[in-house]
Amino acid sequence: MRTCYRLNFLSIVFGLICAATTSYAQNSLLASGQWLKIGITQSGMYQITPAWLSSLGIKASQIGVYGHEIGELPQSNAAQRPTDLQAIPFLKQGDKILFYGEKFPHHYCDTTFYFIRLDDPSPKPITELSASSMTNTPALDYGYSHFHYEPESYNLLQSGREWLGDGFFGQVNRTIQYPLSDYKTGIPSLLSGKLASSSFSPGTFTFNIPGNTIAPLTFPATTGGRYDQKAFVQSFSASVYPEIKDQNWIWNLAYTNTTGSGYIDYIDLQYPRKFNATNENPHYILPNKTDSTFSISIQNKQSNHGVWVKIPGKSWQNASSLTFNKIAPGAELLIFDTTKGADPLTGEIIPNQNIRADSTSELLIITSPSILPAAQLLASYKSAKGIMAKAYSTKEIYHEFSAGKTDVTAIRDFIRSKKPKYVLLLGDATVDYKGINKVATAIERQNYVPSYESRESLQPLQTYVSDDFFGLIADNQGEWLEGNEAMNEPISVGIGRIPARSFEEANTVVNKLISSETRALLQPYRFAWLADDGDANIHVQDAEDFARLIPEAYQVQKTYIDQFPQEVNNGFYTSAAGKKASLELFNRDADFIHFLGHGSESAWTDEKVITNNEIQTLKNSRHLPLLLTATCQFGRFDDPNQLSGAELSLLSNQGGAIGLISTTRPVFQSSNYLFGQAFYRQLVNHLNDKNYRLGDLFRDAKNDSQSGVINRNITLLGDPTYPLPWNHQALTIRLDTLPSGTIQGQTTPSIDGEIRLFYFGEDTPMQTLGTKTDKFSYLKSGDLMAINNAKVEKGKFTLANVPAAKLKWTARTATETYGGGMRSIVKLTSETKEVIAPVLTASLLNETDPLACSPNPLLQIKISDASSLRLVGPKGEKALISINDTLEIPFSDVFIPELGNSKQGTVTIPFESLAPGLYKIKANCFDVHTNQGFCSFEFRVSADNKEQGSLQIYPNPITERTNFSFLQEKRWTSYRYKLKIYSNLGKQMLEKTGMIPGSDSVNQTFSIEWSTAEKSQLDFINYYQIEITYDDGTPFRSFSGRIGNIK
After folding, report:
1. What is the pLDDT of residues 736-745, one digit of tens each?
2. Is residue 36 pLDDT above 60, yes or no?
3. 281-326: per-residue pLDDT in tens?
């Protein structure tokens, strides 16, 4: 899309009709009064009449018209722009008004909006142009009119803001026809445009214009390479003398090629037209090239015709006199019938608003109107946690900053006015905001929060989509040049996006975030690197470089595809073992996963160890990792034709990921490496800063790794205020052996709370298989051997046994979490030798009959021994829980030691949605003397279990607090409840309502507290009825039954 001729004239005077600075109005005009928002899709004279207002059910006392006299806002922060809605001149005629509505070219919106104040205390009707007293002035009888043709049908890369149209497929000849009535003969027209060719052989556009000659345009061939130029464009411009027949000008445009396609970007005609009051097009550009004094003559002008003039730097003025004095070049003229006007296309009453006057917040959440309730829920939660947050709808922002039009710069200008630390864009985005391809549903289109699409749309490695644009808030930023002119510009705001397409998806992720923030880590944080094979081991080497940057206080997991056997079928490699290991990272082995290698929107590695199919089947709701994916396009969020793997991971209501830093377009290993270095450098520099959040890390890593437009393709999909789970207060410990043999520890700083100590074995030398490239040697981290849990009082704690190992620790008080470092324990403390194996006892906590249980049993295994427990045997065997001899869960993932007792602990596993049938559980564990204990346990899930439609109430009879539990189909869904309690005679005794927050379990549980007065109203035996609805009021389930009460 180009900026059309109409805007070229406006640009001359832009700084005069808009604000002289980039400061913003303190209050919006929309803060008071009654307002009607109207939309138009064609330029012309529009009217507001009592009859039309009545059709909308409204009346007006005194009308004013407001809007913007420009189209798309300028990107540069230094450029002038309106500071608020501007008064639009109008002509009052009896009980109606007339104004000139203008449709501007726009990348994001085809509708121009105007705001009608229905009770305007000081409307601004059109003013009178000062009449010239001069006589014998030159007379003009023509001005220039304009035809702009810009079909938008094809975005060849589904990227960038430029669209093409009118495909010439093969040898095609198109007829171009213009209606040119009132043409001023003898004066040339200007014909210009831009054409495109996408072909493996050279293509040619030929102009066949009677009486005129324009040289053919010849285009080079494209290579067809995946990352090579998709098409070439050329512009043309020529003076022509149209040969008009029957008031029409007809000519032909031909494309010659047999292997590709040609396209029209736009064709523009500026032609001289005689002033004629009866012509349907009222708009002219006056032809003078210098300040001039002249009169105009208008054919067929009657008393009912109006003439308006717009001098550069001013708004429209009425011209009662047709003699003009010193008119600057670029002045515009309207000639119209004052008795005629079109009704607006749409009309909508809007409420008052004044977001300009709001105080700033640390976090701004920007979303669509229909998703706003979910944004407000998150804002309330964040504010309660100490991060002041406010939620705004895009509609509010557009009203005050772009006169209602969708515009990415309006959002950026709003952010500039508030200067927050973080911005969360809660909504999906698309490359197709005008709905040209009709792929997205109406609901999805309503919920878009736009992102910045590059100007470049034909070069795969130079085109991009980026939310970084919203963080370019310095006065000298915003233009964001591309190609050879691209500059590295730092972003000042931590920006994230949740690409939700609906309120349901948004609400799911909001509850997912809230639930995840409240979940405590059971081990030192686990960083994992999943590296692709091939490419001379460059991805593995990068993973090794990054892993070395992580302090020893954390766990390191290396999963390299070349360490697993691969199968070959028809020349394609797969790896079942590699796929299993990759999925285990999501399910339990890693808290942070950094993938390095080849990929796409829907898969990692050529072996496809992770695909969108696997992502959609993940059930890891209690273990949601953060992801950094250094691969092509996995994080693409603006393609309406498909959901990327990153989107599926974040939006999943069964598991997936809690947040991702990912890429939206093709990227290079070299730029990924630069970002990775900056990421870990910033991570390590802020390990003890609890106020340093995901958005801070993302912002600083991007600013520290600028590498042209490729860097702009890295995006944060997630909450920028998400607390970094590896960040903690530093804690060191000293261990001393007392005369009794007991180990006493001392913490610095001195705390009161609980410390958990983790003992790891030595690192193991490993080597990849070398399936596609040379073998690679590396070290695998040692296994977790044992866990101790001790109470800390005034900084002191005691331990009965400390094995020779690498010791790491975490600690927690009532208000703070701590982490430490690593120290090697080289001397093993002794315990009296014994040969009795650990005792393991299994049971189901929530079932009365193990042979007829629900699909969601809660398995608990208690382990005890006369000596300290160990999770690894003498030959490296691991303590495991086996289910049906297929699924194995290491004790190290789920074992919780008893506080202050290294000889006892428990394992709790919540099963969910099990299929009917028999389940066989086996478990083993060791003690410090290498004795191994076993247990076996069976339970059967009943095929006719009724729990799916039941409500569990406990305790029943009720006490001061009662828990209610039911099964939900989608995790992290929030609900509302209405509980009514009736007597035996059917009399309603009590009614309670409330919210049920989203949960990461299929068992949704909520609690109700009863006051003494409420309990006194109830009988011993009562009946309840509870209605549960979704957050938007849609019914979910209803339950009824008996509920007891002990007085």
Report:
1. 887 766 789 9
2. yes
3. 899 999 999 999 999 999 999 999 999 999 998 999 999 999 998 9
Rounded to 5 degrees, what are φ and ψ at 507? -65, -40
DSSP string of 899-922, one letter each residue: TTEEEEEEEEEE--SPPSEEEEEE
What the block records as the tokens of 25 is 């109005």
Phi, psi values for residue 73, rounded to 5°: -70, 145
Residues 6+ apart with CB under 8 A from 94: none
Q: Residue 365: in which H helix or E strand, if any?
A: strand 363-367
Instruction: Kindly state the helix (H) or strand (E) to which residue 203 belongs, with its residue range.
Output: strand 203-208
β-pair partners for 466: 452
Average of per-residue pLDDT across 868-882: 94
The CA distances from residue 95 to 45, 127, 564, 574, 608, in Å, are: 16, 19, 81, 76, 69
Report the alpha-carbon distance of residue 1021 to residue 1046 in Å, rounded. 9
pLDDT tens column, 220-259 = 999 989 999 999 999 999 999 999 999 999 999 999 998 8
Burial class (CB in 10 A: 0-12, 13-18, 19+), 779: middle
Residues 550, 551, 552: CA angle, nearest 5 degrees: 115
Question: pLDDT tens for residues 635-678?
Answer: 999 999 999 999 999 999 999 999 999 999 999 999 999 999 99
DSSP 454: P
- Three-state SS for 296? strand
Distance between CA atoms of residues 7 and 839, nearest Å? 83
Q: Which structure tokens are listed for 795?
A: 């900084």
Beta bridge partners of 779: 765
Identify whether the C-beta of residue 596 lies closer than 8 Å to the C-beta of residue 530: yes
- Measured from the Cβ of residue 849, the count of other Cβ atoms closer than 10 Å reads 10
Half-sphere exposure of 153 (CA within 13 A, CB side): 10
In the chain, the amino acid numbered 979 is L
- CA pair distance 875, 482, nearest whole angstrom: 59
CA–CA distance, 503 with 510 (Å, rounded to integer) = 10
Q: Which amino acid is at 139?
A: A
The β-bridge partners of 748 are: 732
- 642 by Cβ neighbours in 10 Å (0-12 / 13-18 / 19+) ranks as middle
End-to-end CA distance of the chain: 76
Round to whole Å and give the CA distance between 473 and 415: 8
pLDDT, position 16:
30
Count of residues making up the chain:
1047
Q: Which amino acid is at 319?
A: A
- Mean per-residue pLDDT over the chain, rounded: 92
Whole-angstrom CA distances from 494 to 89, 399, 432, 633, 671 are 41, 25, 26, 21, 20
Render 485-554 in DSSP notation, one character per residue: G-------SEEEEE--SSHHHHHHHHHHHHHHHTPPPSSS-EEEEEE---GGGHHHHHHHHHHTTS-TTS
Q: Which phi and psi (to 5°) does residue 135 adopt?
A: -125, 170
Query: How many whole angstroms separate alpha carbon 345 and alpha carbon 338?
Result: 19
| Cβ-count burial 333-361 (b if 16+ within 10 Å, e if not) | bbbbbbeebeebeebeeeeebbbbeeeeb
Report the C-alpha dihedral over residues 53, 54, 58, 59, rounded to 10 degrees.
80
pLDDT tens, residue by residue, 154-212 = 999 999 999 999 999 988 899 999 999 999 999 999 999 999 999 999 999 999 999 99
| φ and ψ of 127, to 5 deg | -100, 170
pLDDT interval class at 829 (50, 70, 90) = low
Which neighbouring-strand residues pair with 232?
197
What b/e string do you get for 3-14 counting C-beta neighbours within 10 Å, with b at 16 or more? Answer: ebbbeebbeebb
Helices 669-685 and 538-547, axial angle in degrees (round to 10): 10
